[in-house]
Specification:
The protein is an alpha+beta fold. It has 2 domains: 77 residues, ATP-grasp fold, A domain (Dna Ligase, domain 1), CATH 3.30.1490.20; 114 residues, 2-Layer Sandwich (D-amino Acid Aminotransferase, Chain A, domain 1). Helix content is 37%, strand content 26%. The chain has 8 helices and 10 strands. The strands form 2 sheets. Strands 5, 6, 7, 8, 9 and 10 form a 6-stranded antiparallel β-sheet that branches. The protein is globular. It starts with a helix and ends in a 10-residue tail after the last strand.
């Protein structure tokens, strides 16, 4: 199935449920369809399924609540890190359900996402949005907790070529970190440029997509870049979500 059809299939299923917010699992599926590297993961609706998934993925794993109603899962106890065995996974599943149920009882919980835990590295934010005046815009900068604290983010109109994506990166402090400081290996900047361009193409090619955010998109030391968290929002007025 062509990329555009796979993306539209996911969008159509979300629209059919009357939602504009994709779950993290659905958002990851869209990005993966576009060729963006995403963390190995799976969805589980029970503690038994979660434990089975964790065994398949290999420990340690991360577990996150799966809900289209929760943009910030950590704030309501919906994320558990450093799970090294079946007992950890089962306990984490129960704790997530209890915490989210108490903190956000109105939220629709579809289960949990179980992900292979990624080695630490430089955390980036890569995404984009549909500006009401300028149209599709992509963004790049430092991610994780630094997104709000340092506001190290730059923007460009989409679509864009890889040279323009590199210029975008150079406007940020993140770029200087990625080129290798104090003996660190430089990051794969070509891969990052292609990823930024792909986000731009996603926004340009699918009018229903209002906003995309990968935060963090992790560059592990000596490893391959990968999205470990993602959120895609659809616009209210693009009900058919058709591709151009």
């Amino acid at each position: 199935m062509p990329v555009s059809e796979r993306v539209e299939t996911i969008i159509g299923a979300v629209r059919a449920e009357g939602r504009t917010q994709l779950t993290e699992h659905e958002s990851m599926a869209v990005l993966e369809s576009c060729g963006i590297p995403v963390v190995a993961r799976g969805a589980a609706s029970s503690r038994e399924e979660a434990a089975h998934l964790a065994d398949e993925l290999g420990y340690p794993v991360v577990m996150k609540v799966l809900s289209a109603d929760l943009g910030h899962k950590t704030d309501v106890g919906g994320v558990k890190l450093d799970l090294f065995g079946e007992g950890d996974v089962v306990r984490a599943f129960d704790e997530i359900m209890e915490a989210v149920g108490a903190g956000r009882p109105e939220a629709r919980i579809m289960g949990v996402s179980v992900q292979r835990q990624v080695n630490r590295g430089t955390e980036l934010i890569i995404g984009g949005l549909r500006d009401p005046h300028f149209g599709p815009v992509v963004m790049f900068g430092l991610g994780g907790i630094y997104t709000d604290v340092l506001a190290d983010v730059a923007f460009r109109l989409a679509p864009l070529e890889e040279d323009a994506a590199r210029d975008l990166m150079r406007e940020t402090a993140a770029y200087r970190m990625l080129t290798g400081i104090r003996g660190d290996h430089p990051a794969d900047l070509d891969q990052l440029a292609r990823t930024i361009c792909t986000i731009g193409d996603l926004l340009v090619g699918h009018e229903a997509v209002e906003e995309v955010e990968m935060n963090p998109f992790v560059m592990p030391a000596g490893g391959s870049p990968v999205a470990v968290d993602a959120l895609i929002t659809l616009g209210e007025s693009c009900g058919e979500g058709r591709a151009r």
